[in-house]
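Dear colleagues,

As part of the handover before I leave the project, I'm documenting each prediction I ran so the next person doesn't have to rerun anything. This entry is a single chain, and its sequence is reproduced below.
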Amino acid sequence: MEIHLVTGGTGFAGAHLVQALMAGGLAVRVITRNVQRARRVLPPDVEIIVGDVTNPGVVEEAVS
């Protein structure tokens, strides 16, 4: 299954992008530092990777 990675998914534009992708039937993964905010603003079936995009290990996990 193809998963689309969105960084900044809990921001205004990013959250709308995530919703649009999911409305189109696509699977979405988000990197976020704030899980509580992600759960509050994103659809429940978004896959959440906790961490910072400046951390290479987190990015590697998110794209694998």
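DSSP finds three helices and three strands in the chain. Helices lie at 12-23, 35-41, 56-63.

All the best with the project,
I.
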